[in-house]
Write a structure and sequence with these properties.
With 547 residues, the protein is α+β, with helices and mostly antiparallel strands. InterPro entries: ABC1_dom, Kinase-like_dom_sf, UbiB, UbiB_bact, UbiB_kinase.
């Protein structure tokens, strides 16, 4: 509790130190805050308005990796930020202040169990790049290969967990006081973010992700993924092939190499949709610091991807619904979009489709007032999901991750080639993928996929058939016995209903026998005995012996 309070005080002091209160619109504050806190914040505010982007960047850097990562995500959204802020936040991609090279050396030696001099022919203690979670050093293996060594920052997990604790406190507070708290699900958002950022602390996972992405794009003309040196890769250290390329955000360098920007932008889109729909495994941290370009063939540029710590995936059902949603949207079939959301379970089953359809139309139809090439694919998804949340759509982590990645890819593509028509690139891919989900080709793929399992069970088929037939025969016998019992019961009930009047008459006869005996005078006892006995015997016959 004391640590959280200390951290909260530090955050508040940082906000004041860098005058981040300048971002707060004081005129929107409630009157009681406007004339108390607002008056205090106005002191020196005019002088603080200069270099606001730099002040924001420095504040995020001073607060640590959680806030640096937040700034990295913001830096990819140039459509939402002024240029001065976006340019400053872009520096967070790989210019976070490094930690000493001597500290990195100790971490490497502890993790790999050997001296740096025994592992590497050369090791540069000055970092090549420094990010929020780790930093990278260049080295040369004893076998002569040039590599980069990625090292997790010391004691970073402790700081991250502390900051996540504060984020949870803030999320619970927002959930309680905000009218949108339930819909926005801030606690669930922090939980997803916690899972993501803690995954980045395990370089063994990142190495495994890199290996899978590399296999998916083996011999590809679109994307190159560097090799991992598995003997030197563990939780806190990862050794990877050193790549040579132009940072994708360095537009001037790409133009100097005469890179075909249209092809480069379109290939970025193709890579994204290939990962999502063909591989079901996509790089979900595609900010400019993680992407390079191989420009040796300027007309056929090739992407190079690094930092595979955050990866996303969609199951077949999500892919199917997503593709159909996007195709339906661009055909303006809002009814189908609404039905797909309900059918997929993204919104509750009882959602009124007509009302949902109307809400989607009101949000999406204005987009079509613009030329198709100017419609933001990412904004389409964002608009659809925001509308769906009004109808109690629960947060879908896999879709949120995909939405974020698509926004990054689209923003990057339009930086490279402003006239990029993402729909022209994506539509044929989506239509081709959808056509492959039905028909003979899909059937053949499923048969090929299931064939090994079928072959393994083939020797057991005769026994399974015999066992099944025996079971069926026994079931039929039991069903016949049950049927016979039911028929016999029905006959018995039928007889009982038929003889019911006789039973009733027998009861009356026995009652009459008793009354006769009781009411006749003693002097006529012999006659009474004879009459009552006759009535009694008649009753017995009617009640018991009558079939």
């Amino acid at each position: 509790m004391w640590k959280s309070a200390t951290r909260s005080i530090r955050i508040a002091l940082t906000v004041l130190r860098y005058r981040l209160d300048a971002f707060i619109p004081l005129h929107l504050l409630p009157w009681y805050l406007k004339y108390t806190l607002g008056l205090f914040l106005r002191i020196g505010r005019d002088r603080a308005l200069k270099n606001r982007g730099e002040r924001l960047r420095l504040a995020l850097e001073s607060l640590g990796p959680i806030f640096v990562k937040f700034g990295q995500i913001l830096s990819t959204r140039r459509d939402l930020l002024p240029d001065d802020i976006a340019n400053e936040l872009a520096r967070l991609q790989d210019r976070v202040p490094p930690f000493p090279g001597e500290v990195a050396t100790k971490i490497i030696e502890k993790e790999l169990g050997s001296s740096v001099n025994d592992i590497f022919a050369a090791f540069d203690k000055t970092p090549l790049a420094s990010a929020s979670i780790a930093q990278v050093h260049t080295a040369t293996l004893k076998t002569g290969e040039d590599v980069v060594v990625k090292v997790i920052r010391p004691n970073i997990e402790k700081t991250i967990r502390q900051d996540i604790g504060l984020l949870y406190m803030l999320a619970h507070f927002i959930a309680k006081i905000s009218a949108d708290g339930k819909r926005l699900r801030p606690v669930e958002v922090v939980t997803d973010y916690e899972y993501t950022i803690l995954d980045e602390l395990d370089l063994a996972k990142e190495a495994a992700n890199t290996g899978l992405l590399q296999r998916n794009f083996t011999d590809s003309k679109l994307l190159y993924v560097p090799d991992i040196y598995w003997d030197y890769s563990h939780r806190n250290v990862m050794v990877m092939e050193r790549i040579s390329g132009i940072p994708v955000a360095d537009i001037a360098a790409l133009n100097a190499k005469n890179v075909n920007m249209k092809v480069l932008a379109e290939r970025g889109v193709e890579i994204f949709f290939t990962q999502v729909f063909s591989h079901s495994f996509f790089h979900a941290d595609m900010h400019p610091g993680n992407i390079f370009v191989d420009a040796r063939d300027p007309e056929n540029p090739k992407y190079i991807a690094i930092d595979c710590a955050i990866m996303g995936s969609l199951d077949d059902a999500d892919k199917n619904y997503l593709a159909r949603n996007l195709l339906a949207f661009f055909k303006r079939d809002y009814r189908l979009v609404a039905e797909l959301h309900v059918e997929s379970g993204w919104v509750p089953k009882g959602t009124p489709v007509h009302a949902f359809e109307s809400a989607i139309r009101s949000v999406c139809e204005p987009m079509f007032a613009k030329p198709l090439k100017d419609i933001s694919f990412g904004q389409v998804l964002l608009g659809l999901f925001q509308t769906a949340r009004r109808f109690n759509m629960e947060v879908q982590p896999q879709l949120v991750l995909l939405e974020k990645t698509l926004l990054n890819i689209e923003g990057l593509g339009r930086q490279l080639y402003p006239d990029l028509d993402l729909w022209v690139t994506a539509k044929p891919f989506l239509e081709r993928w959808m056509s492959e989900q039905v028909g003979p080709r899909r059937l053949f793929e499923e048969v090929k996929k299931q064939a090994p399992d079928w072959a393994a069970h083939l020797p057991q088929i005769p026994n399974l058939v015999f066992s099944t037939m025996t079971h069926v025969a026994k079931q039929e016998q039991r069903m016949q016995e049950q049927t016979d019992a039911i028929l016999e019961l029905r006959k018995e009930l039928k007889r009982s209903r038929k003889n019911l009047p006789f039973k009733i008459l027998g009861i009356f006869a026995m009652g009459a026998a008793w009354l006769t005996t009781d009411s006749i005078a003693l002097e006529h006892l012999a006659k009474a005995d004879i009459l009552s006995l006759a009535l009694f015997l008649a009753g017995i016959y009617l009640l018991v012996l009558k079939p």
